[in-house]
Design the sequence.
């Protein structure tokens, strides 16, 4: 691992631009994250913030409920930030950046990616990179670097550690987020309550994660909102039997529910159980998932 400790921030200062704090309105979520950063007590369930409301969801006996995507009209697009000098392309596909014996405080970061119309986005690329526990970036290899894709519900989850500090910056995690066929959002995620948040020249409270203790580690959550429209699905009922475009209507990567109907290879099929399609699971190959109707 190389030790490239800078003496200046990633960039000399903030760069105004589309989605920057200079021209964004202040939403409820931005104000709430600023309050969390300052250590204020916030009535989470009453606010409607995306990650805040989900984090506060508990059952009557105090057990955590299953996270549910939530989006409201108070959500801003996730602001962009500069890439910095330590990005490397071609990171490995993985959701766990930690290897046995890696020093540092364990951290899990999870959340959802939404379109501006509050529809969860599947197949979104998230490419993460960060400093190690000493504040160093690995420029020779791919330690603490990795990319993943959101699932059918728009969810992602990353296992890593709390990044170390280096001169000029507060704690942060870099990420590039790209919906299929759409522009790349390059941004950074921050930790609430960090003393250096107030002196970091590019810190943005709109990019604060919600972080809580979890045993000997921490759990962080953050929901991205991209400047794209999510697919709300067909507005017309399917034809019966379905119209068959070239190659059929079955598609790898699509989330099917029981009762859905597709065509493949000139034949019609009905879905028997919910699943996300993948190559090799074409209807003729998996009679447990698809029943032939022709």
Sequence:
């Amino acid at each position: 691992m190389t030790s490239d400790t800078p003496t200046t921030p990633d960039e000399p200062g903030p760069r105004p631009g589309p989605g920057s704090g200079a021209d964004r309105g202040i939403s409820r979520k931005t104000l709430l994250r600023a309050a969390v950063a300052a250590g204020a007590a916030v009535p989470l369930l009453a606010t409607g913030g995306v990650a805040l409301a989900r984090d506060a969801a508990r059952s009557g006996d105090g057990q955590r409920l299953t996270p549910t995507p939530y989006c409201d009209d108070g959500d801003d697009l996730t602001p962009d930030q500069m890439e910095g000098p330590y990005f490397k392309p071609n990171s490995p596909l993985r959701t766990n950046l930690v290897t046995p014996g890696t020093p540092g405080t364990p951290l899990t970061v999870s959340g959802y990616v939404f379109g501006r119309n509050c529809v969860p986005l599947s197949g979104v690329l998230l490419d993460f990179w960060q400093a190690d526990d000493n504040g160093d970036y690995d420029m020779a290899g791919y330690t603490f670097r990795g990319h993943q894709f959101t699932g059918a519900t728009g969810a992602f989850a990353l296992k890593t550690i709390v990044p170390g500090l280096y001169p000029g910056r507060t704690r942060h995690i870099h990420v590039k987020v790209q919906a299929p066929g759409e522009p790349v959002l390059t941004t950074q995620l921050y930790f609430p309550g960090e003393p250096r948040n107030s002196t970091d020249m590019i810190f943005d409270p709109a990019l604060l994660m919600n972080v809580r203790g979890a045993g000997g580690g921490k759990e962080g959550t953050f929901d991205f909102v991209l400047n794209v429209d999510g697919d709300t699905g067909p507005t017309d009922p399917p034809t019966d039997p379905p119209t068959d475009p070239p190659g059929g209507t079955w598609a790898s990567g699509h989330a099917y529910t029981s009762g859905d109907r597709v065509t493949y290879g000139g034949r019609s099929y009905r879905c028997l159980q919910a699943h996300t399609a993948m190559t090799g699971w074409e209807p003729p190959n998996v009679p447990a998932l698809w029943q032939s109707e022709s």
